Structures are given as C-alpha cells and as structure tokens.
Amino acid sequence: MLSTAFSEAQAAVLARYEVAAEERWIDAPVVDGQAHVLVTGDGPPVVLLNGIGVPAAMLAPIMARLDDVTQYAVDLPGYGLTDTAPTFTDDPRRNAVRFLTEVLDGLGLDKPVIVANSLGSLCASWLAIDRPDRVAGLAHLGCPAIVLDTSAPLPMRLLAIRPLGRLMMKLQPPSERQVAQLAKMVNESPLPPEIAQLILATERLEHFEDAFLAMLDRLLRLRGNRPEFALTTDLLARIEAPTLLVFAKDDPMGAARVGQRMADAMDDAELHIVEGGHAPWIHHANQIAPPLLAFLDRVGHLPGT
Known about the structure:
Layout: H1 2-16, E1 22-28, E2 33-41, E3 45-49, H2 60-63, E4 70-74, H3 92-107, E5 113-116, H4 119-130, E6 137-141, H5 154-159, H6 164-171, H7 176-185, H8 193-203, H9 208-219, E7 220-221, E8 224-225, H10 233-237, E9 243-248, H11 256-265, E10 269-274, H12 281-298
Parallel strand pairs: 3-4, 3-5, 5-6, 6-9, 9-10
Antiparallel strand pairs: 1-2, 2-4, 7-8
Helix pairs in contact: 1-8, 3-4
C-alpha cells in the first residue's frame, strides 16, 4: 500500500536523525478527517509545519536539535497522512486557520510557538493575524510562501495553470529523477537519500496530486503570486507575535533582501541569514539551531525562562 511505503520512508528519516516520535491522529472537521502529527520531546510546546508537497517529517534534521521542548510536527492537509477535502482550497486562508485551530484544540495546546517553512509559514502567519491569541511566536525557516511580491520558480507557476499542471504531472510522474530535479530547483541538491525517498513516497500518495495542484492554482498564476492571498506589508504589520526570520542565501523563493523587507514591516522581528536554499535546515541545521534556540529562550519557551 502507498501509505505503508510512506510510513516506512518516514520511519527511515526519523531513524537517520535519531528523532524518537510517536504518531497522533487529531480530528479535523475542516478536512473531513484527521490530521497526522508526530510528537517528540518534553517541555513547552512547539508546533512545526512544513511546506507544500512535503510532510512534517522532513523537518527531522532540525527537530533533532531542539531539546527541552515538546515538538508537534503536523502534516498539512494533503501532504503526508493528513486527510484533505476537495473544498479545502476554496478559501485557503479561512480553512488553514480552521485547520490549525482544530489541531491545536485537539492537541490541548493553548498558545504554542510555531516553527514553519514556505506554505506552513503562510498558514501560520494567517493564524497569527486572525487568531493572535493562539500564537506565542513565529519562526520562519526559509522564505514564507507568497510573501510581499515573491512567487515561485517558473515550473511551479506552470503547474498552477489548469489543465497544464495535470498534463505536466502525467508526463513527469513521481520518480527518483523528478525528486532530484525538484531538489535542484529549490537549491537543496543533493538530498539525503532518506529524505528523497520520503518526498517520493509522499508524491505517490493517492490524494497528493489533487491537493498539490489545487493549492498551487489558488496561490499562484503564471506572472506571479495571487495578490489576494499574499502576505502584504500591511498584513505583516498586523502580526503581534515575536518573529524569527531565518533566510537562506540561495533560497529561490526569496533570499536575504526579502527577509529584510519582512523584518522592516514587522514590530518584533529578527533576521538571521544562513547558507542553503528553500529548506536550509536539511544541510545547515547547525547554523539554524542556535538562533532558533535563542528565540525560544527569548519568548519563554525553554525551561527556566
């Protein structure tokens, strides 16, 4: 079964980085099903959200370096083992906020810090804007999806065009070669083999293609992002939660200049620049862990603070 292949690939990634996590299933009515969550550690709560098309276990390299907190790594709807619904992308902002609120309620979390990447960062930002009472702090690892005037590389914008996206995925179905090309596109090549296999297993899940293409269609167009969903300067200024921005020098979605513009737009944001591409923790977790741990300490999310 495809879900069995995914679970085996997930287990291999967690084993490589020595992350001992248990799985939890949280009812999420907005997706007509359940959210899949990996839980590890002991201490104040930190919720982790990854980007479009990949599951939360991909964050294992940085999870391995976060001691003294309880980590809740959540698969976003349609990626990994979290369910999705055909109507989820009809109103992505409203439904993302509903989904995260339902997951936090199901986990019994009041106001955690959220550590996120790409689409996860976009969803977490929407939550911080619409429900500031549920977010103690935000840490973005890499450029958030469609922030300011950023977009995505041309291949992803082409995938957002219906029915071209469906045809492109038919012509180039999930394969080891396709995953390697994806890694090059986001400047994270070569991937560790366990992570490459995890992405491949995710892309082969039955619900993946519909969820992936539907979200791309809602957020992107050929000439850039869809401004009705982008994180504008005005929206960033509304985020009250302390924010850590970890931007990578070679992130094709948005590098240091974008990070500085975000920091300038927000009341309480600090910017750190590291090596890497759109998923910099894969190869440079050693550069990310110190500012992230310092941030958790600053917002009172480490023991003794």
